[in-house]
Prior knowledge:
Layout: E1 4-9, H1 16-26, E2 29-34, E3 45-48, H2 69-78, E4 83-86, H3 88-95, E5 102-104, E6 112-120, E7 136-143, E8 147-149, H4 152-160, E9 164-168, E10 180-184, E11 190-193, H5 220-234
Helix pairs in contact: 1-5
Amino acid sequence: MTARIGVITFPGSLDDGDAQRAIRVAGAEPVALWHGSHDLEGVDALVLPGGFSYGDYLRAGAIAALSPIMSEVKDAAAQGMPILGICNGFQMLVEAHLLPGGLIRNAHQQFICRDQRLRVENAATAWTHGFEAGQEITIPLKNGDGGYICSAETLARIEGEGLVAFRYVGVNPNGSIDDIAGLTNERGNVVGLMPHPEHAVEPGFGPDTAAAMRSGVDGLTFFTSAIASLAAAAA
């Protein structure tokens, strides 16, 4: 049975269509969901996509975190549903307290867009188990408010408990503490990261590699990992 993965559109979302395409390329059925609804339409997993929800007013992701559908997202997270927050979606997850810490303006106060090397720190989540711990991947990054912050106590906890999912390699593009690029919750079903895996799922459209220009497809593993997790849970 084909997995159904919902992609929630908020006012100002701009990568929802890309996320739906990535899900389709990975072999699942994308389901478009609306932020003002309380119906997850029976999906098996969720993606909160990138963009500038509500114009990034107040704080990036803060208003979207109060959208009606986020009540259902929180319930689904508590029940173990795989949930991926990408860029603005990561900001929503921290604002909704589904992941710890916060995200602030980039240290250099400028929007950045680049192909970013990452190291996989936690390969035991619903979205990362297709990788190996320590593996380096390249994923496009584009953000203005991507600086990860947290208290010293929270940092000690997430480092000690292995909740850092990804770290920036080579360049820390936004001043994130400890080079943190993405996190997971304790259960491993909720993952958030600033880079955009949905932009690296098809040859010809991803980052450059040694093999060919724009041939990078490291982002596809996020989605195939989730699909495999759902299949294993259903078996």
